[in-house]
Design brief:
Elements: E1 5-8, E2 15-17, H1 20-31, H2 37-50, H3 67-71, H4 77-88, H5 98-106, E3 112-114, H6 118-127, E4 131-136, H7 143-148, E5 157-160, H8 161-164, H9 171-181, E6 188-192, E7 207-210, H10 224-232
Helix pairs in contact: 1-2, 1-5, 4-5, 6-10
Length: 234
Amino acid sequence: MTIKGVLFDFSGTLFRIEPVGDWLSAVLDAAGITLDDSELARCARELEEAGALPGGANPLRTPEHLTELWAERDTSGELHRRTYTGLAREVALPDDRLYDLLYDRHKTPAAWRPYPDTGAVLAGLRERGIGIGVVSNIGWDLRPVFREHGLDDFVDTYALSFEHGVQKPDARLFRAACEGLGQDPADVLMVGDDRRADGGAAALGCAVHFVDHLPADRRPAGLLPVLALAGEGR
């Protein structure tokens, strides 16, 4: 197999969302709301347990009234917002505005950090003439995140679930990305952190490589094997 294109997942693969405490603190500061340390810690802990931060931990328990939304949350922007603000509302916060403000914060480039080797790997693939795509289950346009971090020029195509109305592991999303690269799936490698969602590319004939979903400072070189795989053509 000769690799002519590489598809990457976004969250947990190329970028990592900020920690829940930082996410909450940024929103509180912007809203001019001050909490004492114990209350801040409670809110952060309960938001994390609720799975309210997109790109963060999944809910410890999905509330029954959100089960259907959770299953299809990435197929539209409206469903994505309703799902995550609904999860956040399982937590008592001091101001009702915070639920929407928290959701809006996670969509900003400032809330995301590239993994330490993201830029080097994307640049290395580009130097080798290998096409690059991003395939993400997401409810909003992540292109500004790539632009803000100086990585958009490396990406040839984006296949975002909310724009196609389907989410991984549905093969249609991977097919759209391969078509965007102009490549046969048999010549494409999919890189992701979710064995179920990202592994769906295998049904289309893509090779698949997994990385660990870890904080950025704990995974400094998790993407580097992709360059070796591309160089070896397998």
